[in-house]
Amino acid sequence: MYRVEATRQFREDLRRLDRTIALRILERIEWLAGNVQTLRTPLKNLPKDLKGLQKLRVGDYRVLLWADHREQSLTLYGVAHRREIYKRLR
Asked: Is 42 within 8 Å of 53 (Cβ atoms)?
């Protein structure tokens, strides 16, 4: 089971979401902590400071995170609707 850490940005994003959506996202993150092997390859064409960033799909929402397999930890970067989340990465 991987340890889960959240950035301040992620916590702020989560607070803005509807409660039912936020709970669904948290359940999915909890599931991912035990099933990290399901993550695919990192996102492409990112700024250097976001290298290795990955996404987790939860319905129409995307959770951006880093997986550190050596430390067995997940660092949650942000969460938003799929229309909005990728605009932040530019």
From this structure: yes
Two structure tokens written together for 61 = 């929402």
Sequence spans of domains, the chain? 3-89
Q: What is the helix (H) or strand (E) element at residue 84, kind and residue range? A: helix 82-85
The structure's pTM equals 0.91
Yes or no: say if 20 and 58 are a contact pair by the CB < 8 Å rule.
no
Helices and strands in the chain: count of H runs, count of E runs = 3, 4
Provide the CATH number for the domain formed by 3-89 in this structure. 3.30.2310.20
Handedness of CA 59, 65, 67, 71 (dihedral sign): negative
pLDDT tens track for 3-47: 999 999 999 999 999 999 999 999 999 999 999 999 988 898 888
